């Protein structure tokens, strides 16, 4: 059965983006970018692959499907780019018209039902890319967290999880640190 994996960058105070969707405050370093390209190439948007030295045709290693909230999709939409053409893309939104976004599947129904259906299908795992509201609604379906924790305080913005109080235990399975002090931690549902 496929797993739902929330792979996300987080500030020390638990934010995945700033108040206006900013994400450029996360300090990147060469060793971390190389590691991402080697282990999670499908997480690198198509329009930034070549500048980072990652060929467009780099095969997916972990996921073949990506789930995004509208706020996560918005930066690509504003730039007029298709962020992940190498993945099956689902964008959860009640305001986007599916006909206006033919490269993604716009979903305005229950995300839990869709995730359960996707988990039953054949394929690689499913990447939950963001945002916080979508992650909060899918907390009961998340099998693994891969958290890129950066040594920066955002002070406000989009929380990693937004929604109802729902304590959910996960177990740390691995951790890695990079030159900037950023860490990647893997957590499996306890």
TrEMBL record:
InterPro entries hit by this protein: DHFR-like_dom_sf, RibDG_C, Riboflavin_Biosynth_HTPR
Signal sequence segment: none
Pfam families reported in the protein's UniProt record: RibD_C (PF01872)
Top-level taxon in the UniProt lineage: Bacteria
GO biological process, one term: riboflavin biosynthetic process
Bacterial bifunctional deaminase-reductase C-terminal domain ranges (all copies): 3-183
GO molecular function, one term: 5-amino-6-(5-phosphoribosylamino)uracil reductase activity
Annotated protein name in UniProt: Dihydrofolate reductase
Originating species: Nocardia yunnanensis
